Inverse folding.
């Protein structure tokens, strides 16, 4: 049976080759609190392979606090110019320190400093406060490498379902679903009504 992650990567490669798609790795990340309150936001996919889908950010942010409490999430990619969508659901675990360090060290210096300056998801009095914090860290790390902040890392979503959707102008869309009981179970494939 076809590996749905490989199929996803084929679709992602096509999205990256489509000039009208500015950010093909943009995905909606949906999380929920323990009481079931949902939240969704756009984040960027940084890795996708047979081990899962990886994204990074501030571990003290709302999204990562929710993932710590309820380690299940959903991702959604919608590439409108291609008339395609992929929905992914599964469990999440933090990436290793080595993985987080490697990705963090590949980021431009300005983004590294921003990871120190932003107290993500906390109230901000004004823009000047954020810019002052950024300037503070520019000065602190002047002339040296910017280390990864202890509160900055990533998560890997291990998919338990992956759905591929292709638009049809008459609303008879194509929907294919791959499901498995856990990360070591074989994938089951089927079609779904639109």
């Amino acid at each position: 049976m076809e590996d749905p992650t490989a199929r996803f990567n084929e679709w992602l490669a096509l999205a990256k080759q489509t000039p009208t798609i500015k950010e093909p790795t943009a995905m909606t990340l949906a999380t929920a609190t323990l009481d079931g309150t949902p939240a969704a936001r756009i984040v960027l996919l940084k890795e996708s392979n047979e081990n899962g889908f990886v994204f990074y950010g501030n571990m003290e942010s709302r999204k990562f606090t929710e993932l710590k409490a309820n380690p299940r999430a959903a991702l959604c990619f919608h590439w409108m110019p291609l008339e395609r969508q992929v929905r992914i659901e599964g469990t999440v675990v933090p990436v290793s320190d080595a993985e987080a360090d490697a990705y963090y060290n590949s980021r431009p210096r300005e983004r590294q400093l921003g990871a120190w300056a932003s107290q993500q998801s906390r109230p901000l009095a004004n823009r000047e406060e954020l810019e002052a914090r950024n300037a503070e860290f520019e000065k602190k790390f002047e002339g040296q490498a910017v280390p990864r902040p202890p509160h900055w890392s990533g998560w890997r979503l291990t998919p338990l379902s992956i759905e591929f959707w292709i638009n049809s102008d008459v609303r008879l869309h194509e929907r294919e679903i791959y499901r498995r009981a856990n990360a070591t179970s074989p994938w089951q494939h089927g079609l779904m009504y639109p």
